[in-house]
Amino acid sequence: MSLRTIFYSLPSSWRFLARRLYYLPTDWWELAAGKRAPLQPPKGLIYTGGGDFLKEGSRLLERFVRIGGLQPHHQVLDIGSGIGRVAIPMTPYLNKRGFYEGFDVVELGVRWCQEHISRRFPNFQFQYVPLANDLYRKDGTDAATFHFPYGENQFDFVIANSVFTHMLPKEVDNYLKEIQRVLKPGGKCYATFFILNAASISLMAEQPDFQFRHDHGHYRLFDEKVKAANVAFEEDYLIRELLNANQLKAVETHYGYWCGRNKEACEDFQDFVLVEKLKSL
User: Residue 208: which residues within 8 A CB-CB, separation 6 or more?
Assistant: First the structure.
C-alpha cells in the first residue's frame, strides 16, 4: 500500500492534522530562525500540491504568461485558490488595473490569504465556499449546482489548477458552464486534468503506485472510497461532452508525466489544457 493510499484512507479532518503534525518541527524552526518569507505559509498549512511552494507558484505564473497570454491588467479568477500558491507570485505582476478573485472549499486557506495577502494587496480578494468534496470535507453545497459568485463576462483569465482532477463529471460540467459564463469573449482558462487516451493508458500500466483502477466508463477513479482523491477523464469525452458542449474550445493540450511519460519532455505532472471562450455563440 502506497503512502498516497494510506493518506487518502484517513478521514478528511485527520489529513489536515497529519500534515500539520508532520511539519510542526520544521515550521517552528523556520519561524524562530526567521527563515519564512512574509508571504509564505507554514508547510503544515499547505494542503495542496508538492515541491517548493514559492518556486512552484512562480513557475505556474510564468506558464500563464507564456502559454496563456496573461497580462498585468487582466481580471483573474482562481478556482480552488488554496493557500495562495498562485496568488503570491501574482501580487507583483498584476498592476493597478488588474484584479484577482479566488475561492476555495478550505476555510483555513482562505483565512490565511485574507490576512496575509488581501491586507497588503486590496486588489486580491478571497472567498470561502463550503462545497462538499470527500477529499476535504463531507458536507456542504453540491458543486454540481454551485453558481459562481461573479458576474457574466467578468474575467480575462480563469485558473483551475488541480481542480478538475478532484471532481466528478457532473461537477466538472457545471464548473465549465460557470467558467464560460464569467469569462469575457476570447478569454482564456488554464485547467489541469488527468487525460486518458491510448498512450496514457498504456504507460499507466507500468506505474504501480499511480493507477486509475476503478473504471466508470468515461472516467476512472484512483480510489473508490475517496472519489475526489484523483479523477481521470477520457480525452474524447472531455473535449466533446465537457468542453465543446459548453462553448469552450481547447486551444492547446500539454500532456504531463503522471502516467510515465518522460519528465523532461513535459511541462508538469498533470496534463493541462488552455481553453478559450468562443467570441460568438
Answer: none
